[in-house]
What does this fold into?
Amino acid sequence: MNVGIFGGTFDPIHNAHLFVAESARRLEGLDRVLFVPTNTVHYRPAPEASAADRCAMIALAIASNDTFALDETDVRAGATGYTADLLPKIAAAYPGARLTFITGADSIASGAWTRFEEVLEALDAFVVAPRAGVSADAVERAACSVSSALRARVKMLDLPDLPESATLVRTLLSQRKSVRYLVPEPTWRYIVARDLYGLRHGDA
It folds into this structure.
């Protein structure tokens, strides 16, 4: 079984997340893609929405795709937020599976990864989605911190640069602007119903 692990804050999940997950599934021959939200963030501000709300939005957004699944391992008590600590737990839940981690170019180019070599050792592949404003050279420089054998597990997905981000979604919401069709429709309805990110019913 080939399992993809898509980690992030998903604050909130948006359509580009779904596009990257589905593209990685097809390009890498994955049988399942796990969306793994984290609660403990070491290189960016803490999520605005609660773990419960972010998990609910993910579950709603992926419900129509039976190859997608929500995994709450990294929002449970005791989770460190470090991918190196997460991967053994995922491996234990899927014994014998080939594991592929999915992330965005902005994440790896930030240089904020801790125990990156340990992360790669636990994986069969580490795939990176292009992101507008982040060069392939920046991703390559970040990967140079590990041995050439492990660096070979890092690859860019053959996708267009994606400008959409959760930061953009939150910014628009804070300005009381619409993000409908930037996020999945069930997610949009959830944000409106719960008045998340400063949105009020009258603003929708």
